[in-house]
Each structure stands twice: as C-alpha cells, then as structure tokens.
UniProtKB/TrEMBL annotation:
Record protein name field: Hyoscyamine 6-dioxygenase-like
GO biological process, one term: defense response to oomycetes
SUPFAM superfamilies reported in the protein's UniProt record: Clavaminate synthase-like
Recorded family membership: Belongs to the iron/ascorbate-dependent oxidoreductase family.
Source superkingdom: Eukaryota
Amino acid sequence: MEKLVSSWNNVQTVPEKYIFPPEKRPGNVTFNASKSIPVIDLEAIAISQDRDATIQKILKAGQDYGFFQVINHGVAEDLMNDTMSVFKEFFELPEEDKTSFYCEDGMRNNHCMLYTSSLLYATEDVHLWRDNLRNSCHPLEECIQHWPEKPTRYRHVVGAYATEVKKLAATILELLCEGLGLESGHFGGKLSEIPSLLVNHYPPCPDPSLTLGVSEHCDPNLITILQQDSDVFGLQVLKNGEWVGVEPISNAFVVNMGYQMQIISNNKLRSVEHRAVTNSEKARTSVAMFFFPSGDSIVEPAKALVDPLNPAIYKSFQYKEFIAHFLKKSGGTDVALEPFKLQAN
C-alpha cells in the first residue's frame, strides 16, 4: 500500500523512478481550449433531420480526432457527480479499508483491483503518476458483490452508473452503425460484450513536466466512455503531431474509438494516441468505461464497408489473438496493428 502515490505526504520532488526519458516528458503543460476536440449535443438525435446531422458530426470527429465529447446524453448529472464523489471518497479511506483490494500483479481480486501505475509495476522501466481502481462489470450483478462496501453507497451508485453508461455506449454505437451504413446492432452482442470500469486517480505532482499520469497509447477495445473531473485539465489527444488538451466540461462524457473500431470500420474511424498529464496543485480523477469484445468474438472489417474500390485492410481474427499481441508489445499504432493487416497485393 505504501507504493500508492495517494498514500504519500508532502512530496517535494518527483522520485527518480517516475521521471520519464527526456523525449517522453510532457514539458511545460499548457491547454488551449480553442483547439479541443468536438463537442456533440445528443439531444438532437430525437429529430430525424437533426439526427442525420449529428451522426455526420460523430463520423467526422471519429475520423479527424478519434475523439469527441457528448452533452445532453441522458445520464443524470446527479448520478455522474455522485459517482465521482464516491470514487474520491474511496481513495481517501483509511488504508485498512482498501487493503483487501490492493494488488501488484492482478492476481488478487479480479472483480475489483486497486493498484498503482500499472499491473506491470514490478518490471516497468518508469512508473506512472497515478493510482488505479478497476471494477469488472460483466456480469454486473455478480461483480457488484465483490466491489467495496465503503463508502456505504459505493455498490448502489457505481452499479447504477455502470448501467447508465452502458446504455449511452449502446446509443453511440447504434449512431455509428447508422452513419457507416451497417445493420442495426452490428456493434452489439459479442463485439461490446465485456464492460470494465477504470478509475484513474492522479494526486498533485511536484513537477508535471517530468512525468505522466498515463503514457501515450491507444485503447485496444471497441469504444471508451470517459468522465473527467469538471475543473482539472489532464487528458491530451495527439492531433497532427501536437498534443491537444481535452477541455473538462461539466456533465459531459469523452468518447474515443478503440483499435477494434478502427479495424471494423476499415479505417473510416480512427483510434488515436492519447495520454494524461498531471497537475501541481490539484488531484484529478477520471472514470473510464471500456467496452471490449469477448475473447472468442470474430473481429474483421464490416463486409458492408468492403468492395473492390475499398478492399479490406485487416484480416479476420479472434479478439483474444489481438489482446495477447497487444499486451506483449510496446509501441504505437503500427506495432499494434501490423500483424493483423492484410498484405498488399
């Protein structure tokens, strides 16, 4: 438990093990809200004409950024605020209330794990400035029984939150189906069957220029729905070689495409590298819900998107093949996707 960054007191300097190589450091972190990712109002999808325009905005954001924010999405603001409060309260609990969930190798309680940096802590070259709480959500009714009982409303609030965010994900996936010209439900079933909820907690850092909360990466899953702290910048998206800050907007969710969405859409939508920087004055907490395919699900470019003029870029494979490769390799998109590409004729 002493390895948890949130357990440290009065840290004046960044420990050596947390200092990134010069080429990986974020440097002086600034945020320009004018360059942030698109914000899309989902209230308009109830009206046919506005629905079409909204879908086109989603597709354009998915192609240009791989990211967008949604507002008026149907998840109650009170539930969002209460969920964020519950997670912050959890990290502030006494050590004895969190010990049973703490692990360093992912082998302790796979329904709920508290760890620091990553599950590769023992072997990684440099540590991330974050603590993590991972909640399995499939099947939700079973997983909830293994979640924390403190704070006392944890299971009730987080369970309701997971249910509502899953509904939101289903709505967004259906809009993507419409926009891409796929049959209804194409992204449902096994392709988004396994939800997992990850809470990232980033305590104040004495020198944010030296370290990262999350290093640059793309998500291996289908789609991710993220709630940010309402007043602390941290998430950055790579756009044309520049790190663009994602403005925290109250009662909004950040949506990003995972590798599986890029593959199934045959590159019509993109999974884009992103990272999280730290803050010297404020702690930051984010709540991400990832939607993964089941291990035996078949992932391949949708047949409706493939023709002689638009040949398939990727081969057909089981998701468990992809995730096994992803977890073994380090590197960017080229490294992750190369083994699954069809060779050019």
